[in-house]
Backbone:
């Protein structure tokens, strides 16, 4: 089935005079380099979004306006709720010390209302309504806020950027396909006389198509691998900032599946270029008849 990929000596004597070459490998290398970087960015965003979403799925905060006069009692109430774990109180004084970094001495003013916070995990969200009623009986105005509601705009932006990256990968792939079509048609025009002679001695359209298909496969493979190698070097250099990225994303990195997808992208680009070249050449030859 892949005999066109390994031509016989007779095929090489018959079809080996045509050359494809030109700027095609360079164009594909540039496209492959860009696709790899954009795809890696999109996969990293997906990993970050998944990590953030999973880490806050069961995380809640009990907000107590006016400080924590009854903070100890509220903490005990939260801990006594079935399904609640990892209860951690953030007193008003700690909140004011944090705000002092930005507000200065104004953070200590009694006129600045600062709530006390109680962070906790709840496996069963159906019990939160009763917990909030009990908390309000102790501290009127207390409310429970889900962390996922607070970061929903951030997750929405991350998902949007993922789709943007996916769209850019498709656009660059389409651009690479267009470049291959132009190169294939140019090669046909350059070797028009040779193709007519080959037809005259009995060569079929499929044989001629195989010749160009082999050449674009080699050019596309070389170009895509070169671009992918350059992208890998850039990504490794960017990995020097992994410590900072880990602090910002909670340690999100590209997983084994992400790396496998990136490794398969040069092969996918090569197959796409080969298929596009085959289709363009075969269609042009049939129209010429």
Residues:
């Amino acid at each position: 089935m892949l005999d066109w990929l390994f031509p016989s000596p007779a095929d090489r004597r018959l079809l080996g005079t045509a050359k494809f070459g030109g700027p095609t490998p360079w164009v594909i290398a540039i496209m492959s380099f860009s696709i790899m970087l954009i795809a890696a960015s999109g996969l990293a965003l997906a990993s970050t979004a998944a990590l953030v979403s999973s880490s806050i799925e069961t995380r809640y905060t009990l907000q107590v306006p006016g400080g924590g006069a009854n903070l100890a009692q509220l903490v005990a109430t939260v801990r006594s709720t079935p399904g609640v774990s990892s209860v951690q109180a953030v007193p008003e004084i700690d909140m004011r010390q944090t705000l002092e970094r930005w507000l200065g001495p104004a953070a200590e003013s009694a006129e600045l209302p600062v709530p006390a916070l109680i962070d906790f995990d709840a496996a069963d969200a159906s019990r939160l309504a009763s917990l909030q009623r009990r908390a309000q009986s102790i501290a009127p105005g207390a409310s429970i806020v889900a962390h996922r509601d607070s970061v929903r705009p951030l997750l929405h932006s991350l998902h949007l950027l993922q789709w943007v990256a996916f769209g850019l990968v498709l656009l660059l792939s389409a651009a690479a396909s267009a470049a291959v079509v132009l190169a294939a048609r140019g090669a046909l025009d350059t070797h028009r006389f040779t193709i007519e002679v080959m037809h005259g001695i009995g060569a079929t359209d499929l044989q001629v198509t195989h010749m160009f298909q082999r050449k674009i496969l080699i050019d596309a493979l070389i170009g895509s691998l070169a671009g992918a190698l350059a992208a890998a070097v850039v990504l490794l250099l960017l990995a020097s900032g992994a410590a900072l990225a880990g602090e910002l994303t909670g340690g999100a990195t590209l997983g084994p599946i992400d790396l496998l997808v990136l490794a398969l992208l040069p092969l996918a680009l090569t197959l796409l270029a080969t298929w596009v070249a085959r289709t363009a050449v075969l269609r042009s030859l049939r129209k010429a008849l």
About this structure: The chain has two domains: 9-54+153-288, 66-141. The chain has eleven helices and four strands. The CA atoms of residues 153 and 159 lie 10 Å apart. The longest helix spans residues 152-190.
